[in-house]
Amino acid sequence: LVIVNVWIGVAANGINALLHFMLLDVWHLGLNGSALALMLSYVSMFVMTLVYIIISKTYTATWGGWSSQCLHNWGAFIRLSLPGMFMISLETWFFEIGTILAGVLGTRDLGAQSVLIQIDNLYLVIPSGMQIACAIHLGQCLGANKPARAQLSAWICLVFISYYQTYAYTKYVVSIWGSLCREVADLAADLMPEVGTYMAFASLTIVCKGVLSGAGRQAMACAVLLITYYVIALPISVCLVFLTDLGLEGYWIGMTIATILGLSVSLAIVYRTDWPRHADEVAVHT
């Protein structure tokens, strides 16, 4: 059903573009209009997905209706879901902290940070998709008691994404993007070497998180993120931003340090993973 979500996303993007045109260019609602358009676009995605599920009845193949069985095994579910939630939250919060730091430095730094975050989001679309596919496929392999295939798939994903290590966005792209404000564009372009280095390591780190999630080791991945980002990188970033002349560059240096450390630890964990044991654990839970 992935293709269905793709088409729903395409339709929602079309709705988003139309709403932005109407609310900004026709009715001149400004920033409030942009926020309203984005909110309505997300609502449209939810409505279209719900309508498809109801009409297609695709859920009937895997769900027989409500029963008392839905109250069973919540402990195992929560032990996996909570660390998985914090895996996403910890990284997102660190980006938000970077936005706050940039705002303290001034509007020019905040504008450059906004541009760089969007570039980062675009660049990491493919690794993020690989992360999801890897987690699902590894879970299926372990559920089918095929640990050797799970191990092979994990390393294939990591090798594949390693070929993605290229600066997809150059200083010229940043300059064009920020042409409405030359100071913002110049600062963003100057920071691209640091941001590009971060993105190169981040793409591998993202896939590593998918491997760990597929193996049911979300808690381990969460601990790695917590230590590398908040115990090590955050103090370094704050010191570099405010106690040196690096400014916003110091934040991205801290991000890069956290990503390299996290990648190193994650690769070590993947290398030492006992795949047959994890397959046996999956068999017990199912």
Automatic annotation (TrEMBL):
It comes from the Eukaryota. One of its GO terms (cellular component) is membrane. Coiled coil: none annotated. One of its GO terms (molecular function) is xenobiotic transmembrane transporter activity. Pfam families: MatE. Keywords: Membrane, Transmembrane, Transmembrane helix. The chain crosses the membrane at residues 6-24, 36-55, 152-170, 195-212, 219-244, 250-271. Belongs to the multi antimicrobial extrusion (MATE) (TC 2.A.66.1) family. PANTHER family: MULTIDRUG RESISTANCE PROTEIN (PTHR11206). This is Multidrug and toxin extrusion protein.
